[in-house]
Amino acid sequence: MKALLERYSVKKYKDKNIDKSLIDEMIKIVNSSPTSINGHHFSALFIDNKNIKKELSKIGNFGSHVDQAPLFVVFNLDLNAIKETLKITNQKIDEKIVDYVIITSIVDATISATMLQDYCLLNDLGTCFIGSVRHNVSKVREILNYPSNVFPIVGLTIGYSDQEKTIKPKLNKVMFNQYDKNHFTNIIKDYDNELKEFYIKKGKQPIGHIDWISNAYKNDSKFIQDIEVDQMTKMLSKYFFKKYLNDENK
């Protein structure tokens, strides 16, 4: 429990390889994670090749920790297992449910990524989720040799931490029984102050939650500019379904 509650994003790793027995167990964790209707709507790519990690680290917001970490795992929206299974009975996924199936794939991939993170924490390994795999989709897919119908959802760096443990305060997102429309209105400003105090104690610029999110979502922010919106829209739409899902990989 302590390891999970004290989770923090590790962005600096020791030059130390992960034992093969641990990686073998990680693979079992990913493959045993729950999937809707036991459909296996996702895939995971384990990357320990230094050259590939180095190439990825040069993209947009990836950061040097992708290169430093001995292992980088990318979880993908991938319906090829469903597609190949249905081919045996000459079936295709009904276009009416494509949005549901895509959401299901994203959920399955995220559940598996979280299970892998938790396993790592319980085995003294540091991690950091990398959402930037969704920002520069075309470059990521090129480097990782993805077919047209596979879309990266989230990455996870894994290794032995070489930085001070820094547990950032988090916003309370839990409600009970019925949704409270005023929940976030009532707590955002208090959380903003809590985060500022946290950074002050760390001797850093006291940026609160409100300024941080406001700056991130400005149209000219680096966060927004790095997102290949056209690529995401193309992949996560019915165009994705019509052009790629029921056809052979391009």
| Count of strand segments | 4
Count of alpha and pi helical runs: 12
Oligomer: single chain
Q: What is the string of helix and strand elements?
A: HHEHHEHHEHEHHHHH
Structural overview:
With 250 residues, this protein is an alpha+beta fold. 46% of the residues lie in helices and 12% in strands. It has twelve helices and four strands. It has a four-stranded antiparallel β-sheet with strand order 1-2-4-3, sandwiched between helices. α2 (20-32) runs antiparallel to α6 (98-121). The protein is globular and about 60 Å long. The N and C termini lie far apart (45 Å). The relative contact order is 0.16. The mean pLDDT is 84.
Sum this structure up briefly.
The protein has helices at 2-5, 20-32, 50-57, 65-68, 80-88, 98-121, 137-143, 183-201, 209-216, 222-225, 229-235, 238-245, and strands at residues 42-47, 71-78, 126-130, 150-159. By secondary structure, the chain is α+β, with helices and mostly antiparallel strands. The mean pLDDT is 84.
